[in-house]
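Hey, I'm writing a tutorial for new members on how sequence and structure tokens pair up, and I'd like a real worked example in the thread rather than a made-up one. If someone can provide the structure for the chain below, I'll link this post from the tutorial.
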Amino acid sequence: MNIIIITMTDLKTIIKELIASKSEGIYWDFKREWYENNASLLHDILCMSNAEHKGNRYIIIGITNNYKILGLKDDQSRKNQGNLISLLGSKSFANDSRPEIEVNTIQINRKQIDVIIIKDKPLKPYFLAKVYSNKNKKVDLYIYTRVGDTNTPINEQADQCQIEYMWKERFGLFLPPIERLSNLLIEPSEWSKDDYNCHYHKLFPEFKIVFGETKEGNLIDNPYSIYYPSEVIGYGSVKFLYKSTELLKRNFINCDNCQIRLPEPKKEIVNRNDIRECFYYYIKDSFEGRFLYYLKDSKFLYDYNDDEQDLISEMKIWPLLLFKTTDDFNNFIDFVNDEKNNDKMQNIKDNVHIDNKIKNRVINDERDKKQVYNVSIYREIYRFWLEQKTLV
């Protein structure tokens, strides 16, 4: 899998270069206008999603057949990202695996162009579990793909060799064991967890997750634990095995008197105005972020194709911060350290609500109280940052 994070400036440069090529290719396609038929749109997204390419794929809308920039000023069929996410979400996909997309608008030569970005994820092949028809078009239960600049016809299946390659890619058979393991974690239902302390993958039982003995933890090192009904916390180590080889070793945390098991979160120290503060977090697409998703059986803050608005609402109850990417984490740190935000930060601190039950638990220890309060303060700062981010 090759996840590429790009800025709007980068996207504009990429699209300009693709237009200048005066051709279409395996990972990019031009459209004069938006699709009137959603079945045609869905078919093209599926073809692009399954293409044999490492990196993002682009459907570029507002370009003529001879590669001139037309723009989209009066396009009545125009859609935004929410429309496309709703379209994909309303369809029944095999294995419940849906393509992850973004829709961005850029301006070139004073004309607006829409770009559907389809992310490269290790979940191919994407195909429907239920036929979808719209007007005179029908997306069947076929596996489609794209070869060169040509999509599989909507009434045909991709070649068998292409389909085999997709399945091998999905199962990570071309990857080293650590990368395979990381990819397998984002499908927690494919693992056997009958033994609480020893899990194995159902299709690839050579991959195992073995939890070690749990020891008692303390509040000062794990202040987020107090936000659960029981502040009793334990910790231990977990080994990730491939056959008899130890691939990785990490720490895990048991919160709420062993009712909730989590990877040990990362801790970030922040020095603001000579005051030392800290918060605890995960990065979604790191190994720990995937392990978190696995441990929560995907019943967590996000589907793996999550919406940031869901994160905002969930932060009311979740004591740990979750960033989609390392870039997001760095942007949050920049926000916290920016002196222009001092008044906003202070206002959040002055008005943060701490539940009385939590106050009563730490009332006798000022050091514990500061650590616990920081959890609530940075949770609210994070929510504010996310809200501002979604408005941009």
